[in-house]
Amino acid sequence: MTKADLARSIYNRHGGISIQDASHIVDLIFSIIKNQLLGGEEIHIVGFGTFQVVNRQPRRGRNPVTGQPMNLEGHRALVFRPARGLNSV
After folding, report:
1. How far is residue 59's CA from residue 72's CA, in Å, rounded to a whole number?
2. What is the pTM of this model?
3. How far is CA 42 from CA 2, 36, 37, 77, in A?
4. What domain range is 77 assigned to?
5. Total structural domains in the chain?
6. 75 exposed, middle or buried (CB, 10 Å; 0-12, 13-18, 19+)?
């Protein structure tokens, strides 16, 4: 499913807004989620799941081509944990 598909679904279900307004709503929701995550906040959507930014520690890894050990730097990563009801899908 794409952003355009989401906008089309909103447009079809609502009926009182234009497709451009529906697209703007989808963009606005994603913008809010992105800004909250960049600010270090957790996003919890009941019945769907939780988005969270976590700090990954530096670690030893292995080059998959050569097999040589290498150091991997720490970084921030986005984690999604689905709600219990969504796990059964």
Report:
1. 5
2. 0.74
3. 23, 7, 6, 13
4. 42-89
5. 2
6. exposed
